[in-house]
Design brief:
The complex is a heterodimer. By secondary structure, chain A is α/β, with parallel strands linked by helices. Chain A contains ten helices and six strands. The radius of gyration of chain A is 20 Å and the shape is globular. The chains are: A alpha/beta, B alpha/beta.
Chain lengths: 236, 513
């Protein structure tokens, strides 16, 4: 190695950083969407005896919170947030089996899909991605979902949250059909129900019996985290 | 032992915020048009207008009031003189202009990176000019002061989409009429390094402007290059006055550019039709530009037009309506046939405040100006109330539109990257492009991004105070003035300018005329 290379202040070695510095660097690396660096940082923290849960919360979720805030404030752009979420996913792949072993839960789980008649899924995909970024395990059941489709997914994944989206004014009322059926079956309170999509508003969300309307993907992730944690506290 | 990985530290949040604030656009000193001109008359129609303008010049003629020099020059050139009325043999003015006037010229700025080329396929965007009042959301409408003048010079300097510092960007009424030109010219030089316009309200004031330019650029440089472009209005219909001709003569003699601009409130100062109005504009423009070429063959001259339609209901000027747009489009075509640069347009409106009327009227005129092929777009930013008021918020809104005009005139790129075939191959049916490699590589500069338009959800907009565009623009200009840093000016030049101003101001009494 040449001397000039060593002297370059910008160069860093992740392994040489203290825990605190490394976590800070991982926040920066998440922000910049550097997947390999996040994977390496995750492994280093684990090798230093950090629990998978602590790595998830302090390094990854805390980092993605910053990403969410700056996305909302117009500093980060959509393609950059996608890169950040992808880097987060890299870390999650490492943590997932370890979390399962220790019996620790992820931040939460979520089933998400667009309602029957609606094939517009870019917004829903962004919500899924942001929630994954926030540490959720997201089961995306895609587009055009009937009551039966939603119920099958709820049965299978037993999520904390059911997320439904619609882009069309003519398809959004179907959310009420799904929620009414949850009520009929007596399982409405088993789930947090979040709804979203361009033609909705807060009033509509409450009128169809959802817990919250989320205006965009950054807010959806923040609301999801807050509501799951509130629920866990209430049940504790 | 595995190799220890070294890597460059990533910038994270701080790095991104800094990069975003800097912006991604490289400053371009002017726009180079890559789309066709919008034209609405064919050759036959344009030739008909040119023929009628010649008839106007030959049969009715133009008056050059209280200015014997013009009469003498035209007499020698072969025109028919009757007192102050000058009648021109068919084709005389056109011939004088075409054999002498440059089709384009460079106006030098004190920072050579900001030099502008005026003419051809270029468009130079220039702030509004001449308002006695200023307006902002905090203090409403009030007479402009030299402080306001400095503020607008600073804002224009900081606006990447404006290429020129302008001239009488607002009228500083707190300074005596016969001395305010010193403060205005000094402000343009001191607080900006973009090119600027000279004083035209008296030949002596034009001479002072040239003298100050010489202190900045050097005597020889000014004699051989254009460092000033100044606005000379015809006194329509069919009249030029001694004030304007006097200033024009000073600039031409010093090889500085003038834009000969009939100022037309159609229906009052010209006939009530589009065809009649453009005929008169051409006749007046030809006579004025020919005069300049007789004073100094080869001095840069711009064919200008400012046209508004007068409300037949009230007599008030109107803006952003279709007919003056047509006038501008036709005059643009006539200027190209003549072979001289073309001035017109801007963000014109009649609205008193930066509201919906202001926005649509201004958008109508700005886009029409860009399509018409305007080379020097005076009044691009700030204009309110038919030019009576210079708006701080309106300035910011118009400067945003100016950025969009530049992108519009850039046309469409057909490079391999722009054709984006790789993106299709990567994503295929049913996916989305937001994460595509092609998007990652191009998103930052892909689409015009306004700094004052709000595109967020209703809820976020409401949470952030339910602000309308003017309120957002209000924060923006205040932030800009807070962050303003003056461009470096050689202290010796600054001292020489201040010395010149002090000396000249002490040579005569303050006067308000």
């Amino acid at each position: 190695m040449s001397d000039s290379y060593l002297e370059n202040e910008d160069d860093i070695i992740l392994e040489d950083l203290s825990d605190e510095e490394l976590v800070e660097q991982m926040h920066d690396d998440l922000y910049d969407g550097l997947k390999e660096e996040i994977e390496e940082g995750t492994n280093i923290l684990l090798s230093r005896g950090w629990s998978p849960e602590r790595v998830l919360n302090e390094a990854l979720v805390a980092g993605m919170t910053i990403v969410g805030i700056d996305f909302r404030d117009g500093i980060l752009f959509v393609p950059e947030v996608l890169l950040a979420a992808n880097a987060m996913k890299g870390g999650m792949e490492i943590l997932k089996p370890l979390l399962a072993e220790t019996g620790a839960k992820p931040v939460g789980t979520m089933v998400i899909g667009t309602v029957k008649g609606d094939i517009h899924d870019i917004g829903k995909n962004l919500v899924g991605m942001m929630c994954e970024g926030a540490g959720f395990e997201v089961f995306d059941i895609g587009i055009n979902n009937s009551v039966e489709d939603y119920f099958a997914a709820l049965e299978k994944h037993k999520p904390d949250i059911l997320g439904m989206s619609a882009l069309l004014t003519t398809t959004m009322p179907y959310m009420k059909v799904v929620i009414d059926e949850l009520v009929n079956k007596g399982i409405r309170d088993d789930y947090i129900v979040l709804v979203g999509g361009a033609p909705l508003n807060e009033e509509f969300g409450l009128a169809v019996g959802a817990d919250r309307y989320c205006r965009d993907s950054a807010e959806a992730a923040a609301v999801a985290v807050a509501m799951v944690s509130e629920r866990q506290q209430n049940s504790a | 032992m595995p190799e220890r990985k070294r890597r460059r530290q990533s910038g994270g949040r701080r790095g991104k915020i800094a990069a975003r604030e800097q912006g991604v656009t490289n400053y371009r000193p002017y726009i180079e048009r890559k789309i066709p001109y919008f034209e609405i008359l064919d050759d036959e129609g344009l030739a008909l207008i040119e023929g009628n303008a010649d008839i106007l010049l030959e049969e009715i003629g133009i008056e050059f009031r209280d200015f014997p020099k013009a009469i003498d020059l035209f007499k020698n050139a072969g025109a028919d003189i009757d007192g102050e009325r000058v009648r021109f043999p068919k084709g005389l003015c056109r011939e004088i202009i075409q054999s002498n006037a440059p089709s384009e010229y460079i106006q030098h700025a004190r920072n050579p990176n900001n030099n502008v080329t005026i003419g051809g396929r270029r468009t130079v965007l220039v702030p509004a000019y001449g308002s006695p009042f200023v307006r902002d959301l905090d203090e409403g409408r009030r007479y402009a002061t030299i402080e306001d003048f400095r503020n607008f010079v600073k804002l224009a300097y900081m606006s990447p989409n404006l290429h020129h510092s302008g001239g009488t960007i607002c009228e500083p009424v707190d300074v005596p009429v016969n001395k305010r030109h010193f403060d205005m010219i000094y402000s343009h030089i001191k607080y900006s390094d973009k090119p600027f316009m000279g004083s035209v309200t008296h030949p002596e004031r034009a001479q002072d402007t040239v003298a100050m330019a010489k202190l900045v650029f050097g005597d020889d440089f000014v004699q051989e290059n254009t460092v000033l472009t100044s606005l000379i209005n015809a006194n329509s219909p069919l009249t030029f006055d001694d004030t304007m001709l006097g200033a024009a003569t000073v600039y031409a003699e010093n090889n500085q550019a003038t834009m000969i601009s009939p100022f037309i409130l159609a229906g009052a100062m010209s006939p009530v039709t589009i065809a009649g109005t453009v005929t008169q504009i051409l006749a007046e423009g030809l006579a004025g530009m020919a005069y300049i070429q007789l004073v100094k063959p080869g001095a840069p001259v711009i064919f200008g037009t400012f046209a508004s339609a007068v409300s037949m209901q009230s007599g008030a000027p109107t803006f952003g309506t279709p007919e003056p747009g047509h006038v501008m489009t036709i005059v643009g075509a006539l200027a190209r046939r003549l072979g001289v640069p073309f001035r017109s347009g801007g963000g014109l409106c009649a609205s008193k405040i930066p509201d919906a009327q202001a926005a649509y009227e201004s958008a109508n005129t700005l886009q029409a100006s860009a399509l018409a092929g305007v080379n020097f777009m005076l009044h691009t930013a700030g204009w309110l109330e038919g030019g009576l008021s210079m708006g701080y918020e309106k300035f910011i809104m118009d400067a945003d539109q100016a950025g969009m005009l530049a992108v519009m005139l850039d046309g469409v790129e057909l490079s391999e990257n722009s054709l984006a075939m790789d993106a299709f191959r990567e994503i295929g049916p049913g996916g989305h492009f937001l994460g595509a490699a092609h998007t990652q590589a191009n998103f930052e500069s892909a689409f015009y991004r306004s700094e004052i338009a709000d595109n967020n959800s209703f809820e976020q907009w409401e949470e952030e105070g339910s602000m309308d565009c003017a309120m957002r623009a209000n924060s923006k200009w205040k932030k800009m003035l807070n962050e303003y840093e003056a461009p470096a000016l050689d202290p010796a030049i600054d001292e020489a300018l201040l010395e010149f101003i002090t000396k000249r101001k002490s040579e005569f009494e303050d006067r308000d005329y």
